[in-house]
Design brief:
The protein is mainly alpha-helical. It is built from five helices and two strands; from the N terminus they run ααααββα. A hairpin with a 2-residue loop joins strand 1 and strand 2.
């Protein structure tokens, strides 16, 4: 399944369940963060990023914005860095995010 097909599938799924999709973050927020805050062009699918961020944040019990900043800007969260390197938890979060984003 291509990224475009997956994005279409997610959009359709979310449209069918609007009352069950309660989140503080949107794909537009992600795009704004990447383009305005990080000063980079948008090269990834914001809907796929949103799905991976929400799933990772839910699984590990972190705030969605903290997961976004950790994944894209390498900003430390609680127990994710030690002396500038990723801890076991940090590596687990990255691996989980990459698995969800790549699926």
């Amino acid at each position: 399944m291509t990224n475009e097909e997956w994005s279409t599938k997610l959009k359709k799924h979310w449209a069918e369940l609007p009352d069950q999709n309660e989140t503080t973050m949107t794909s537009k927020d992600i795009q704004d963060y990447i383009e305005k805050d990080l000063g980079q062009p948008m090269r990834h699918d914001p809907y796929m990023l949103l799905e991976a961020i929400q799933e990772t944040a839910s699984t590990f019990g972190f705030d969605e914005w903290k997961v976004l900043r950790f994944m894209l800007a390498n900003e430390p969260m609680f127990a994710t860095h030690s002396y500038g390197f990723h801890t076991r938890l940090g590596r687990a979060i990255r691996a989980y995010f990459e698995f969800i984003y790549g699926s």
